[in-house]
Specification:
292 residues; mainly alpha
């Protein structure tokens, strides 16, 4: 019995871990597209191709569109489009793991503000302390770009909005809502990318990498996370998601050869610990996560 129970937990945990690694691998691959089409161009390809894949998988055309919560869907999709664009802009100058840690302040803020436990303020303080370690103070030996950091934090604000809108927009339709939200996100991100990269987006040699980014960053992790979300307790799911900044840093080191200083690793560890602690103390349901 215990063996069966353990296997029933290990399977969704494995799904979630594969999903998170897939997202970080997709972000690393997207960064390789920046020299050719820039961050906004890479965002346009990711969302454009990824949305087509999501429509094929989740088939949102079967929904009764007249009954959908369109105000919530619009907020959901707009925040998703701006979030993805800002995050990729941040990746131009900020290492992957640090960008994710900065972006993670969004869902962390939602978890802390949604809790009535006074001790959750300690988790907020821990996260703020970690972020202060990343600030390029005058005279500090750091190469972090303030504008890139600001974009990553802006992506975190959009992630928080995505969660708030997504909980209401996806309450009844779940995964199909993701496909519709991604479509709205395309309206934001694709024209921005086209204006920057132009016809370079249509270069045949970019298609394999663009398809890989869409699969690794959207289609595969969305599907795996939806499967894991239905099989794991909310707290377990949220705590495991807290590992994402650390996984991002590891993927950045392995795939992009990004080397972090000890204080930067300490900052990421602080954000991970704060996020895990806030998740364990939060009784609210976890919204469907977003790929970076």
């Amino acid at each position: 019995m215990s063996s069966s129970r353990s296997s029933s937990v290990l399977f969704p945990v494995a799904l979630l871990l594969v999903s998170m690694v897939s997202i970080q691998a997709g972000a690393s691959l997207a960064k390789s597209l920046f020299p050719a089409i820039g961050a906004t161009g890479a965002t346009a390809l990711r969302l454009g191709i990824g949305t087509l894949l999501l429509w094929a998988v989740f088939r949102p055309w079967k929904l009764d569109w007249r009954a959908l919560p369109w105000p919530m869907l619009l907020g959901y999709g707009l925040s998703l489009g701006v979030m993805n664009t800002l995050f990729y802009i941040a990746l131009q100058t900020v290492p992957l793991g640090i960008a994710i840690a900065l972006e993670f302040t969004g869902p962390l803020a939602v978890a802390v503000l949604g809790s009535r436990r006074a001790r959750d303020l300690l988790w907020a303080a821990l996260a703020i302390g970690g972020l202060l370690l990343l600030v390029p103070w005058p005279g500090a030996q750091t190469s972090l770009d303030p504008l890139g950091m600001a974009c990553a934090l802006g992506a975190g604000v959009c992630w928080a909005l995505y969660i708030l809108f997504g909980q209401k927009a996806g309450a009844e339709h779940g995964a199909q809502t993701v496909a519709l939200g991604s479509t709205i996100a395309c309206v934001v991100a694709v024209p921005w990318g086209v204006a920057h990269a132009g016809s370079a987006l249509l270069a045949p040699e970019l298609l394999p990498a663009a398809l890989g980014v869409a699969v690794l960053s959207m289609a595969l992790p969305y599907s795996l996370e939806m499967m894991a979300l239905t099989r794991l307790p909310t707290r377990t799911f949220g705590m495991l998601m807290s590992l994402e900044p650390a996984l991002g840093a590891l993927c950045g080191m392995v795939l992009l050869h990004e080397q972090l200083r000890p204080l930067q690793w300490l900052a990421i560890a602080a954000v991970v610990a704060a996020s895990a602690g806030a998740t364990l103390g939060n009784q609210a349901p976890v919204a469907a996560p977003v790929p970076d």
